[in-house]
Structure formats: C-alpha cells, structure tokens
C-alpha cells in the first residue's frame, strides 16, 4: 500500500494559525485528507480508459476511498481486492494475473461485449456444441491452444468420419477449422497504471486550496 503524507504541509501552515484555528485543526485535517483522497480517486478512475482499452465498469469502479476521522486523520485510496489481483502487475510489474483461466482469453471469431471481452459463460455455451472443441492445433504459425470450431458438414458431401451438424447461424462454412478463442500464456506486463504517482500529483497540486477551504469551514462552524 502506498502512503502519501501531508504532515509537512500541515506543520508549515499550523505555524501561522490562531488559537481557534489550532483547536479546529484536527477537524480540518480529517476533512482535508478525505477531500484529497476523493480527488485522487476520481483522477484514478478517469485515467483507466487512458491506460486500458475500454475497461469494464467493474474495473473502473474498483477504485475506492476510505475517509479519515478526526481521531485518525488518514484517508485511503485503494483498489478493491478482486480487481487488485489483476491490476497489481500493471502498477508494480510482473506477470499477468489470470486466476483460474487456462490462459489469456483472446477473442478471434467469437462474440464480444461492449468492452471487447467474452460474455459470461460463452465458453461453456460453445463447449455445449458438438462442432466445438478445446485443444491444441498445429497451424502455419505453430501450435495454437484455444477453442476451435470444426467445419460444418454438408449432408450432400459428407466427410468421412465427421459428424453431420447443421450449425444454424453459427455454422462454420469456411471448410476448415475456425479459431474462436485463443488461450495465450500470461506475459510480463509493460503498461503501467501509475496509480501512486497520479495520487501524489493530485495531493501536491490541491493541498493548499483544499486545506484553506476546509479550515474556513471549520472556523465558520466552530462553537
């Protein structure tokens, strides 16, 4: 977890505060760091589409903020657990995290959703078809592991040993095996999210204005 401290900023501004302002400092501090954390969180969300190609709402909304308290003036900007597993390599480096998937599922001739991903349970539905199988096939580019569709067999010209399938709208009429989904091995990540650097930049750029506003509010509401 990355920690960004504003203690030095607070120490500098507290030297010029009145007695009333000093008494209100803990309240203003908690409000300040929470506001800064929220600004950083929004910046992280806005940056997602610049780092990744059409990230899903689940990925974008995995950025979360924990507010500070007067007795514990520390706010957090973090990635929720599930997304953190596959996003961490894009912040700190390392291999892609694929979880239980047999490989990085790359749609080739399969339907995708608005985010370029395979719809949920699509692999299972494909595997329920008699003309689809999962395995390795030798191609002119080498062995490729993935989800393959056999060519549809015409009743008029059957191929010896092949099952006759109608196929419907998803019939493979190419006359050869069709690669639906390629299962690529995980690779070393090159793209960087720059989550920590971005958050630090937001805090540095906005501390003075946010603190001034929160201190003014604290003094206005002081009893």
Structure description:
The chain has 223 residues and is of the alpha+beta class. The protein folds into two domains: 7-96 and 189-220, no CATH class; 104-184, no CATH class. Helix content is 39%, strand content 16%. The chain has seven helices and six strands. It has helices spanning 7-14, 19-51, 57-60, 81-87, 89-92, 122-127, 195-220; strands at 63-66, 76-79, 104-107, 132-139, 142-149, 178-184. The strands form two sheets. The chain has a four-stranded antiparallel beta sheet. Strands 1-2 form a two-stranded antiparallel ribbon. A hairpin with a 2-residue loop joins β4 and β5 (142-149). α2 (19-51) packs antiparallel against α7 (195-220). The radius of gyration is 27 Å and the shape is rod-shaped. The model is unreliable at 156-167 (pLDDT under 50).
């Amino acid at each position: 977890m990355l920690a960004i401290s504003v203690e030095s900023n607070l120490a500098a501004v507290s030297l010029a505060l009145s007695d009333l302002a000093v008494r209100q400092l803990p309240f203003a501090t908690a409000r300040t760091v929470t506001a800064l954390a929220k600004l950083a969180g929004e910046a992280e969300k806005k940056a997602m589409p610049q780092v990744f190609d059409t990230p899903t709402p689940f990925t974008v909304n995995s950025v979360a903020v924990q507010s500070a308290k007067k007795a514990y003036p520390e706010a957090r900007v973090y990635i929720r657990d599930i997304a953190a597993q596959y996003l961490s390599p894009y912040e700190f480096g390392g291999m892609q995290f694929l979880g239980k998937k047999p490989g990085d599922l790359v749609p080739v001739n399969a339907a995708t959703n608005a985010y370029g991903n395979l719809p949920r349970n699509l692999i299972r539905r494909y595997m329920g078809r008699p003309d689809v199988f999962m395995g390795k096939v030798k191609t002119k580019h080498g062995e490729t592991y993935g989800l393959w569709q056999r060519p549809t067999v015409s009743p008029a010209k059957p191929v010896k040993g092949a099952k006759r399938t109608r196929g419907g709208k998803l019939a493979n009429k190419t006359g050869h095996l069709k690669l639906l989904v390629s299962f690529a091995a995980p690779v070393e990540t090159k793209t960087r999210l720059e989550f920590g650097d971005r958050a630090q930049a937001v805090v540095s750029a906005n501390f003075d204005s946010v603190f001034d506003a929160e201190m003014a509010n604290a003094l206005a509401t002081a009893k």
